[in-house]
Specification:
The structure holds two protein chains of two kinds. By secondary structure, chain A is α/β, with parallel strands linked by helices. Helices cover 35% and strands 17% of the residues of chain A. Chain A is built from 13 helices and twelve strands. In chain A, the strands form three sheets. Chain A has a five-stranded mixed beta sheet with strand order 7-9-8-11-12, sandwiched between helices. In chain A, strands 4-6-5-10 form a four-stranded mixed beta sheet. In chain A, strands 2-1-3 form a three-stranded parallel beta sheet, with helices on both faces. Classes of the chains: A alpha/beta, B alpha/beta. At the A-B interface, helix 4, helix 5 and helix 6 of A face helix 6 and helix 7 of B.
Chain lengths: 351, 431
Amino acid sequence: MSEDIATLGEPVLAERRLNMIEAINEALDIMLVRDPDVIIMGEDVGYFGGVFRATAGLQAKHGKNRVFDTPISECGIIGVAVGMGAYGLRPVPEIQFADYIYPGLDQLISEAARLRYRSAGDYIAPITVRSPFGGGIFGGQTHSQSPEALFTHVAGLKTVIPATPHDAKGLLISAIEDNDPVIFFEPKRIYNGPFSGYYDKPVEPWKKHPDSVVPEGYYKIPLGKARTVREGEQLTVLAYGTMVHVAEAVCTSKGVDAEILDLRTLVPLDIKAIEASVEKTGRCLIVHEATRTSGFGAELSALVTERCFYHLEAPVERVTGFDTPYPHSLEWAYFPGPVRIGEAIDKLLKD
Amino acid sequence: MADPAKPGETNRPALSLHVPEPRYRPGDKADFSHIDIGNPGDQPRPDEGIHPSQMAGLAYGMVRVLGDDNQAHGPWNPRLSPDTLRAMLGHMALVRAFDERMFRGQRQGKTSFYMKCTGEEATSIAPAMALASDDMVFPSYRQQGILIARGYPLIDMINQIYSNKADKLKGRQLPIMYSSREHSFFSISGNLATQCPQAVGWAMASAARGDSRIAASWVGEGSTAEGDFHSACTFAAVYNAPVILNVVNNQWAISSFSGFAGAERTTFAARGLGYGIAALRVDGNDALACYAAAEWAANRARGNHGPTLIEYFTYRAEGHSTSDDPSGYRSAQEREEWPLGDPVTRLKNHLIAIGEWDEDRQAAMDLACAEQVKTTTKEAEKNGILGHGLHHPFHTMFEDVYEELPWHLEEQAEQAIRERITKFGTERPFG
């Protein structure tokens, strides 16, 4: 590890490299220590520490009243969290896979998201729902979905998606401290390394990536602020989660001088950062893994077109998953990988 | 459609689908003699720490206290003081007067919607009185009796129903969807049964904190079919939550009789037994029985013995809401033939029978309730009624969606205010 770090030319002692799971675990641990109202619950999150190990060690350290397993009932998990929030706790429920969140939708959409509004502030739902999402792990159609657009469509919910261990920790702490319900989707394909989209190449671990340097202790990354992954002049790429890394790898391999924005938060969206970048480059590529029709890319495309139209030199391009269930064996044919992104870039830069 | 496997071609008998049908439809003579209501005083009252399996009979029988002789019978008699009984009767009379007035207000166009709880007053007022005032309640939409019993100001209820400028919920909620944190009364949702797991979660939090307050939820028998109700039962049982899950079985869910929630097969109280939850089936028109059951369940919860499911067996004497006409689907005779009578009349007759009340005082009380509601209604009308003016500044429409307004809501708020000026000019006409 020290060799890798030396290669990057950064001071060895100041660095501490974590993968995304470790960063999330650390954020949860810190918040359990800082705020006695924080509780964690979900299927297999207690003694076992979660199927992805995100809550490993937390029950042993903080006790069963703070970190505990739940019945296999997403409706119950979210419903109980709403009640706990009304009591004054700050629940952080885990939904084991985003594909399983649907039985909890009524409690999220009609209850958590509306509670502050319908009670005129009498009651709030300061809940952070953590859930691994996205594909690329041969999860088949029930362990691969990206349902973020269902939640961005709901008034009252915030939707946050980190793309690096550093951001995962700071964004999760912000989400937990936020007094509104937050859907925190964790791109599980990049839990252990920043996936480039070239699935036929060896997997890179996080420790080679500069954003795996995670400061110790408490820090926050504000919700609603995008991250400029790299600056560029030729086009703007809007992406989040796994696709940030895939888009970056494609741009690098094609030698395109792209400005890549990692949106981090879909609602509230950092519209200023988007406008500034598109006005500078005049071209916009939107990338997400979710299905295309009514995906969040449609919203981004509309916003860019409405607000930056006279700066655009080419129609906005969307690169997304296909409008099919996530197929098991044809996963890489579904995935919006380097070929699909590359074609869209060529189209955008053609004139 | 798949080709059916015809019985003649196989050795198997033909299947048939059962679609439940209520016994009586409009024009039918109603007869409830098939309902076994048992006898007041017959049911045993076990210790609150009992294992649910040892009290299974109470999920199928019916806890009753008030007899046809208007006396209180048996071990479930809560032995309330005459003052408490009179207070209970007073709350019930006030709710009934309130319902009458609000129903008429809706018919007069003062608001869009109202829901009466006629015939079911005891199922909210008696349990509310058996709980501590800071125990948290998660009601459904027909528990206005809880707010009355907890002393919530009538004028705040009416302001909410009128969605006027004094409405504490800023005109955002359908009439009767009250909320009052101050009265430990959770915000009512129009989505049914969502409050059940929420009550369990609140109770779990209270237990995790070593608090002494418990939670209670109310749900209709119809919406026990929702997954939320069953999630609530599972979580309540798993974590031994200090919660009371009340099921108000008023026989009708709009036009669907209780058979569509499974009442042809078993009781609603019996649902609890499968989960290992203590279960009581109670005469919901007997205020003393309702009180005693809630008191038993509260004691059980406070003693860390776990949750209780209570089925209040009652009858929805009026339509589902102002938008409903029950003459289109059920026999008009049902109300008068209901074997468990009227809860207000029964409690009044009990107080008279024990020498603590009389018809003159009842008449005076009813008059005083009607006067109080009338006066308060006039007072509330000064704050406006629904549809006569836009009572709330447009910006309030965008507040409380989030703690702080994000840019897109600020932009939309500006648009809404611009539209108002376009329509009405710069002078603010309302609110």
